[in-house]
Amino acid sequence: MLGQIAAFGVHAFTAIGAVFGFQALIEASAQRWEAVFVWLGAALIVDGLDGPLARRVRVMDRLPRFSGERLDLIIDYLTYVVAPAYVIYAAGLMPAALSLVAAAIILVTSLFHFIDRESKTDDGFFVGFPALWNVVAFYLFIFPTPAPLAFAIVSALAALTFFPFKWVHPVRVRLLRPLTFCIMAAWAAATCAALMQGFPGSPAVQATIALSSLYFLGLGIARSFLLREKSAVAD
To answer: Burial, 149: exposed, middle or buried (Cβ in 10 Å; 0-12, 13-18, 19+)?
Structure first.
């Protein structure tokens, strides 16, 4: 009985991400952009913690009726796709005539990532752009971009959903994991600093985020074209 209660508690913890995503939409409607990403960041933390908790509590064995995987996908679509799509639509980041088009591109192409049965490699990389639109929207605030170029970037990333380019999962990828964790920590610290300073953040913050992103992109390029699946996925 206590095991089932603990398992339900993990599902409830996961479900909090939906509340955070909704709060992000409220902040976006008020154009409080830094606050939007505080809530999306909170949802990201929940998303990172619920999987290990579910495995520790053995949720699948103790509460098989309710699918944690389905719950996670629903909330991920809200926080990784719907909320940032609305931000990109409402914040004037796209050409005015193409704002709705950009949002539609994001919403539709991301569905194909979520239904892709081959969206991850055995060594933990994503295959195709993994619908990280919360990160894309954040970068468009950190690195102010002319609207036509921003639309081109969104379109290109959406198209990459369907190409087998590899993208780093910073937790599951074992290749260079200690270095990746250090880079991820620097990226997270710079992200927090940007939210506290206000967009776009200081030059030091921008440089840290840019260099961190180049590392992740470079690791994905190396995995796509130079390396085979030699690294195992983290437990």
So the answer is: exposed
For residue 229, what pLDDT is reported? 53
Q: How many CA atoms lie within 13 A of 34 on its CB side?
A: 11
Task: Identify whether the C-beta of residue 147 lies closer than 8 Å to the C-beta of residue 95.
Answer: yes
Residue 119 has pLDDT above 90, yes or no: yes
Dump the DSSP string for the chain.
-HHHHHHHHHHHHHHHHHHHHHHHHHHHHTT-HHHHHHHHHHHHHHHHHHHHHHHHHTHHHH-TTS-HHHHHHHHHIIIIIIHHHHHHHHTT-S-GGGHHHHHHHHHHHHHHHHT-TT-B-TTS-EES----HHHHHHHHHHS---HHHHHHHHHHHHHGGGS--EE--TTT--TTHHHHHHHHHHHHHHHHHHHHH-TT--HHHHHHHHHHHHHHHHHHHHHHHT--S-SPPP-
| Cα–Cα dist 18/76, whole Å | 8
Per-residue exposure over 57-95, b if at least 16 CB sit within 10 Å of its own CB, e if not: bebeebbeeeebeebbebbbbbbbbbbbbbbbbbbebbe
Paired tokens of 111: 């569905």
Judged against a pLDDT cut of 90, whether residue 62 lies above it is answered with no
Mean pLDDT of 62-69: 85
Task: List the end-to-end C-alpha distance of the chain, in Å, as a whole number.
Answer: 27
